[in-house]
Specification:
alpha+beta, 6-stranded mixed β-sheet, 6 strands
């Protein structure tokens, strides 16, 4: 599965020192994973949860492009309409 967190260019993104793109991985082998839903991990191994993703989306317009939106939605605990897209 491929998933990329995309944060559009803005002065706030630069001020927060965030990159524009983060390759995410999904795993069920993390201690934060419950009931086989899995979690989304940043490249450094930190968990991206639904709350933090919602904050990034609200403040910076972030979204996730993935070839498997259902897995990402389940891992983040979000409904289908919350910024998870298939790549164009």
């Amino acid at each position: 599965m491929k998933a990329t967190l995309i944060i559009p260019d803005s002065s706030l993104r630069k001020e927060m020192r965030l990159r524009k793109r983060y390759r995410l991985t999904w795993t069920t082998e993390h201690s934060a994973s419950h009931y086989g839903m899995g979690v989304m991990l940043y490249p450094d191994g930190e968990v991206l949860d639904g709350f933090n993703f919602s904050q990034l989306r609200g403040l910076l317009g972030a979204h996730i492009e993935t070839d498997d939106p259902v897995i990402v939605q389940r891992a983040l605990g979000l409904p289908a309409s919350e910024g998870i897209d298939r790549p164009a």
